[in-house]
Design a protein that fits this description.
Length: 185
């Protein structure tokens, strides 16, 4: 039986004092769902795991139901396969992530049938501060650190697309990729 490697990016846990869950507890919930080879990475809800199920919709529903029940609050998950995480890393724009001293790099992962054009339209980049690049199902965002307070990325928080995205910084995304590469039974 084939085993698949996934990363679950959970949205809205351990943020702003809401939906607080320790990673040890999160790992236990994933074990109770019969996933295997489970690893968590930082408190923002990144879980690497293996499963025999190929249907990501079924896996996503299973995760959202179990965690939402545990926290007594709605939690959404974006489940990505190993090839999907690899594509985010390998398809990055030229130079993206290379100048961490001068730029902050983030990946906007699209969820819930949000199209790339619709997501990009919600951003209003500030000239000389914000740069946005389209990927397969992500937006790559870089912001000049010396003008970080002038960035318009924070405007996305109150927008109608905000519930349909999850954001990870580039360093976290690289670490998730590294962990998913190693997560073989």
């Amino acid at each position: 039986m084939e085993t698949y490697v996934y990363a679950a990016l959970l949205r809205g846990i351990n943020a702003g004092g809401n939906n607080i869950i320790k990673m040890v507890e999160l790992k236990r919930i994933f074990e109770e769902m019969d996933f295997s080879n489970i690893k968590t990475y930082i408190q923002t809800g990144n879980v690497i795991f293996n499963d025999i199920e190929a249907d990501k919709t079924k896996i996503t529903d299973k995760i959202e139901t179990a965690i939402s029940k545990k926290l007594n609050n709605t939690v959404t998950a974006l489940v990505l396969s190993k090839p999907e995480i690899a594509a985010v890393i390998h398809d990055k724009p030229a130079g993206f992530g290379d100048d961490k001293d001068n730029y902050k790099y983030d990946i906007i992962f699209l969820m819930k049938q949000l199209g790339i054009k619709e997501a990009r339209a919600a951003f209003d980049p500030r000239e000389g501060v914000d740069q946005i690049y389209e990927g397969g199902n992500v937006l790559y965002i870089s912001r000049a650190k010396k003008h970080l307070t002038k960035s318009r990325l924070s405007k996305i928080v109150g927008s109608e697309i905000y519930p349909k995205i999850t954001i990870r910084n580039w360093v976290t995304t690289e670490k998730i990729y590294e962990l998913i590469q190693k997560n073989i039974l």
